[in-house]
Amino acid sequence: MNLDFFTLWAQTAPVPVNTLTWVGTLGRILVALGGILAFTSFIAAFRKNQTLAVKALHGASISFGTGFLSLLTLFLTSQFQFRYVQRHSALDHELQYKFAGVWSGQEGSFLLWTICSALFLSLAVRKAKGYERWFAGVGSLFLAALAGILSFESPFALNPAGTDLSDGFGMAPSLLNYWVVIHPPTIFLGFGCLTALFAWSVAAMLHRDLDTWIDQVRPWALVALSLTGVGLCMGGFWAYETLGWGGFWAWDPVENTSLVPWLILAAFVHGMIVQKARNKWHIGNAALAASPFLTFVYGTFLTRSGFLGDTSVHSFAQMDRSALWILTGLGFAALIGFVAVLFPTKKWWATIAPPAPKIEGFFTKDTFYAYGNWLLILVGVIAGFGMSVPLIQSLQGQSPKVVEESLYNTVTAFPFLPIVFLMAIGPFLTWRKADLKSKASLLINCLAATIATTGFLLLWLKWGGREVAFGSFIVGFPGRSADPAKTTELLLGQATIPTTPWVLFLFAVCSFAIFANFAKGIQLFRKNKLSSAGMLTHLGVVLTLAGLIFSRGLEQKFEGVVHESKTIQAFGYDIDLLDYTSTFADRNNKVRMNFRKGPNQFTATPGLYFIPGQDGSPQEFLWPYIHSWPLYDLYVVARAFHIEEEGTLDFGGSEPVSLLPGQRAEFNRVLISYQGMETEGTPGTFGAKFSTVLTVTSPAGEEVIKPYVKLLGPGEMERPVVDIGRGLGIYVDSINAADKSAALVIKYTTPAYPVQIFYKPLTILVWYGVGIMALGGTLGAIYRRNRPKTPKNPEDSNSTEPETDQADATENLVEV
What is the pTM of this model? Predict the structure, then answer.
């Protein structure tokens, strides 16, 4: 069976008339104009011309935005005379992928970062009352640097003369998924908001006012936290639905580039609460507000510089050298400039800072917020160091390697439990010494709910997939029982424990935090919606973590081969191969398999197709199929068969099986009986032929065949494959003339697919957790923006909201 990939793949359509070159030229001019206006804004801020600084910032934002629309026009009209458009679009791309092609490559993603930053800077400068001049100046300097990068990494560069413009190369096949349309804009909006936070922090320090800006920046910080958090989770969903390894998160360096800023941003959001309630942490909050931007710039350098090599599935191609120098200079300038502002501000603040309020004990919000922030920063440091390992190795002349997922999981387990404990107990604490006895009833109720939930899960893990009799009642437990043989390494490999009790323990800790935040959120909803939104966000975060722990920790994996000649069993299902839907060069091709368990059945349709690789050989691409139930997912992946250099498809088969006359072997419900050997010609001479007499018994009946091996010349043998039906063939691998034994191989002559099937319990919690987290963050930003001037209940000692809007109020607080 032969497959001409190039004939099937290279389906072209008439080339549109390229009449919009002027649009690309206009786009390039607009980006350059945006850079000039941004730099003008910085100069105006430096020269104390606030009005011009703000207006130039708005002008730059409009210019960048219009330039982005120019690039979008080029993609929607397939203007392949532009190199970037041709490399990231194609005539057969659907409209949504032409739209997403704008940001699918390096140049477009820089432009997306630019317009998202410009958008938030323009919106936020109106709210930065008293800080407008330096806010606009600092933010505009960053925009000018991005414009400089875009002058070298331009998405408006033309192809050389003589380039074939009949079609585009198209996006990478792994990007052709609906997540490419919504994930990058979402997370880059978050990254754009980080720019505003950095500018706000620097402006506040330059103005020597570390109080007023907290009220201004807080809603924007919540928006940034929500956007980056949801964007991170979208990336996990994208990986889960497309990459075929069965997980959401693998601590990839590019994933960590987004995670580290989010963790620091979470610390900043909590730090603002302490500053407002206790009139402290002013310098720390200024540093925390700026650090997410700084770490993201570093991460961008890491992923765009080429130092990662092939260690990340997300890394971009190496940047133009001049653009890389600008990015490197931007990072150093931002860091050095920030430090140069921070230390004098810290020295100044030490002379006027009010006395820190006394901490009345361990079980207070002061203590828990402090430990929580340090733990979040610790996880960020771990992830940041891990993602830097390939860079360190490259600088040492070594081949870059990524840190293994298992090592990340082992190390981050140390801060994980304290973080969840703080999130569980924190809602019950106040700024004063806590009287936990008064909270005992609610704590006991949460603990009881946790024990009950863990107990039900224990029963499910023990009896999953079985029917259990309780007296006269028979209860069927869905899913699959846990694997008792699975183990987990702890303490950096120094201890090994059974996985199931460890995962149950972690889940129980998460469950207690979930119930605690739910109960406290309900209690606070009427009198303090902002605080209840915080509880809702915590609930979503912990629910997501619980789902990740359970689905990854207790997943089970089956590997086998599906073929028309056999039925395989996995996780209680009988699985039969049906067919495939198109050709192996069609990205919409699906492998169809029937899953059957009793009266219940469904058809799984994982995707599998090939494209020509860089060396011309076919390269596989796959899409997993996910069948979801409330308690678990079945995650099905069909892998590729082997393709010979000449295009012949090799579907594999059995290993050679040596039989003596009178012996037999069974393969896929086919019984092979070896009757004996027949010889033609003189053994050891060219033309000698050795035939094996085989009786083949299958569900279709019985037949006698004679596969043979024939010596044609030095090292050259003829071994024809004899068809035996049901997509199977048999040939002689070798013979032994002395004892007349024969080594036989049964081959698949029709497509046979290696499959991986993952059983993923409680994956649904990840989806629900992310939704709840996003809802909580959104409500928090809305409630913060529309908060009343005076709290409804200023006597509530559980609050972080001051009685008035004065930043130095520390008494009569209401909880967040």
Answer: 0.87
